[in-house]
Amino acid sequence: MKSAIALSVALAGVVPDPCAPMYDPVRGLYHLHYQFHPNHVAWGNVSWGHATSADLITWTDMDHHPDNDIPDWKDQEMQSIGTTNLTSKHNPPLYNHLAIFSGSAQPVNLSGGIDGTILAFYTGASELPTAWDEPYAPGTESQALAYSTDGGVTWSHYENNPILSDTPGNWNVTGWRDPYFVPWAQMDDVLNMTEPHYYALEETGSYGFNFELSNFFSIGDRYFVSMGAEGGNVSFHQQKWSLWNEGTISVRANGSIAFDPVSGGASDWGLLYAISSFSDTKNNRRIQWGWAQEDMNDFGITQQGYQGAFALPREIFIKDTPDVIPKSPDAGPGNSRFIQNADGTWNASTLGVRPAPDVVEGLRRGTQHTKYPCDERKCDSKQFSVSSNLTKSYQFSVSIKRTTGIAGVTIGASPNREEYTNIYFDPSSNSVSVNRTHSSLINMFANNTHVGYFEPYQFKNGSTEPIEMDIFVDGSLVEVYVNDRFALTSRIYLSREDSIGVSLFSAPGVDVEYSKIEVWDGLLNAWPDRPVNSSSLLVFDTPAETGNYTWWTGN
Ligand SMILES: *[C@@H]1O[C@H](CO)[C@@H](O)[C@H](O)[C@H]1NC(C)=O
Ligand SMILES: *[C@@H]1O[C@H](CO)[C@@H](O)[C@H](O)[C@H]1NC(C)=O
Ligand SMILES: *[C@@H]1O[C@H](CO)[C@@H](O)[C@H](O)[C@H]1NC(C)=O
Ligand SMILES: *[C@@H]1O[C@H](CO)[C@@H](O)[C@H](O)[C@H]1NC(C)=O
Ligand SMILES: *[C@@H]1O[C@H](CO)[C@@H](O)[C@H](O)[C@H]1NC(C)=O
Ligand SMILES: *[C@@H]1O[C@H](CO)[C@@H](O)[C@H](O)[C@H]1NC(C)=O
Ligand SMILES: *[C@@H]1O[C@H](CO)[C@@H](O)[C@H](O)[C@H]1NC(C)=O
Ligand SMILES: *[C@@H]1O[C@H](CO)[C@@H](O)[C@H](O)[C@H]1NC(C)=O
Ligand SMILES: *[C@@H]1O[C@H](CO)[C@@H](O)[C@H](O)[C@H]1NC(C)=O
Ligand SMILES: *[C@@H]1O[C@H](CO)[C@@H](O)[C@H](O)[C@H]1NC(C)=O
Ligand SMILES: *[C@@H]1O[C@H](CO)[C@@H](O)[C@H](O)[C@H]1NC(C)=O
Ligand SMILES: *[C@@H]1O[C@H](CO)[C@@H](O)[C@H](O)[C@H]1NC(C)=O
Q: Where in the numbering of this chain does the Glycosyl hydrolase family 32 C-terminal domain appear (predicted)?
C-alpha cells in the first residue's frame, strides 16, 4: 500500500472522460459524472464519479451514502454507477463487471417523461484490455441503462440490460462505446416525426481509427458533430485529439440521413480530450466539458496522487464575424463557412467556443483585478513587465492589435527565467503555440510545443482581425482561448515555487501593438466543500483483482 501525498486540492483517483453532463430541471441542479478509479492513480476498474452544481461555478461531490460518516470527497463516496456481477443475455453474461465506460444522461424516465428520474446510458465492459490498435474481441462492450429516482443519490441498473448487445450491421469495429442520446426537435422535423423522439449515437469511424465520446447536435438550424479521434496521425498532431464538423443534412432514398461536412476543425488543439456536450436548458445554450490529461511522461504521478482534471465548461455557439473578405470556394471546406448577407457583405461563420461567460465571471469573484493602461509605447514587450507575483490560479487577457511577427505572453516565469512558458501567435504560419521547452527544470515532463492553427480573418476595409487571447492558468493546467473560436489546452509542471511571473513576449525585431491587458489573480475555488488535503489512500490491486494484471496495471 502507498499513501497519497496531495499537492493540490484535486482528489486521489483518476479523472479521465467527463460523462453525462446534464441539467435536471426538476431540482434545478447540474450533474457531471466522470470516469473514476478511486484510490488509484492509473486507469483500471473504472466507474462513474459524480458531482453537482447549482451554477456550473462551484461544485459539490455527491455523497451516495449519506448515512455513513465518510466525507463525500473521500474514497468511493462520490461513485454513482459502479461495476456489478449482474448477469444477462449478453455474451459474456457478466456485461459490466470490468468497467463502466463513458456515456450520456437525460433528465427523463424510461418512457421519456420528465418526472424527476435521471436516466444514464453507458457502456459496460465484459472483456479487457481493449484498444483501437488491438483486434476487437466480440462482446467486449455493450450499451446499458442506469437510472436514479432520488436526484442522483442512488442508482439502479435497468433489469433488461444491456439494451444493445451487438455492434450494428456486424461492423468490424475497433471500439463501440460512449453512447450519446438526445431529444432532437430539428431531426424530428426532417424525419416528419409527429411526437418527440430520442436519437442515439453509437460509435463511428474515420479521422482516426477509433471515435470516442461522439456527439451530435443542432444550433438553430445548423447541424454539428464532435468526436474524440484515436490513432489519427497528422504531422502536427499525433494520436488522440478532439474534432468537430458542421454538415448539411439530407434524407437518402432509403430514409437514412446523410451528413455532408461543410466546415470543421479541432475542438481543442492541445491535449483536451473526450469532450462531451449537453443542452443547458436553463440558459438555452450548449455547454462542452473536456478532460485535461496529464502530460508527465509517467513521472511523479504517485507523488501527485491523482491524474486528470476538467477544463472550464465551454459554451459553443454560432460565431459570425461580419465584413470579412471571403475565401475562394475553390479552397474547399475550412474552419469557417463564408455566408453572404443581403447587402453583399460577407460573414465568416464557424463553431464558436469560449469559457462560459457566467462561469468566468463567477470564478473572478474575490480576485485581484488589474487593468493595465496601455498606450503603444508603454505596452512594448521589452519595457513592460505585467506582474511578477501571481498565485497559482489566474486569468491573463491580452489583445494583439497588430504584429509583424511572433508575439504573445510569457507565463510561469521564475525571477531569472530559469523556467518560463511562451504563448504566442505566429502570423507567418497562422498558428498559436504554447512553447514548453523551458516550462520546467524537471526535464522528465513533456516539453514539446502545442501548436494550433489560427488564421485571422481579413476585413473588407483592409485590416486584419486582432488576436484576443484569454489565458486561464490553474496549477499545471493552461487553457488558451483566442477570438471566441480557438481553444488549446496544455500542461506545465513548474519545479520552482517562484515561477509566478508573467510578462509580454515577442520575438526579437518584431513590431507589435498590444492593448487590453488585464489580469484576474486568485480565481475562486470551484470545490469549496473539499478540504485543502483531500487525499485518499492509494491501493495496489492483487493479481486476482486484475486478471493477473492483464485487465489493468493495478496501481
Ligand atoms: C471495482 O469497482 C467496483 C465498484 O464499481 C467494486 O465493487 C469492485 O470490488 C471493484 N473491483 C476491484 C477488483 O477492485
Ligand atoms: C465480482 O466477483 C468477483 C469474484 O467474487 C469479485 O472479486 C469482484 O469484486 C466482484 N465484482 C463486483 C463489481 O462486485
Ligand atoms: C414517465 O413520466 C411520465 C410523466 O412525465 C409518466 O406519465 C410516465 O408514466 C413515466 N414513465 C415511467 C416508465 O415511469
Ligand atoms: C477487422 O479489422 C481488422 C483491422 O482492420 C483486421 O485485421 C481484421 O482482419 C478484420 N476482421 C474481419 C473479420 O474482417
Ligand atoms: C417529410 O415530408 C415532406 C413533405 O411532406 C416530404 O417531402 C419528405 O420527403 C418527408 N421526409 C421523410 C424523411 O419522409
Ligand atoms: C505519423 O505520420 C508521419 C508522417 O506525416 C510519419 O512520419 C510518422 O511515422 C507517423 N507516426 C505514427 C505513430 O504513425
Ligand atoms: C441507406 O443508404 C446508405 C447509403 O447508400 C447506406 O450506407 C445505409 O447503410 C443504408 N441504410 C439502410 C438502413 O439500409
Ligand atoms: C452575419 O453576422 C451578423 C452578426 O454579426 C448576423 O446578425 C447576421 O445574421 C449574419 N448574416 C447571416 C447571413 O448569417
Ligand atoms: C509574492 O507574494 C507573496 C505572498 O503574498 C509574498 O510573500 C512575496 O514576498 C511576494 N514576492 C514578491 C517578489 O513580490
Ligand atoms: C520554443 O522556444 C525555444 C526557446 O525558448 C526555441 O528554441 C524553440 O525553437 C521553440 N520551439 C518551437 C517549436 O517554436
Ligand atoms: C525535453 O524532453 C526531453 C525528453 O522528452 C529531454 O531529453 C530534454 O532534455 C528536455 N528538454 C529540456 C530543455 O528540458
Ligand atoms: C496468474 O498467473 C499465475 C502464474 O502464471 C497462475 O498460477 C494463476 O492461476 C493466475 N491467476 C489468475 C487469476 O489468472
A: 361-521
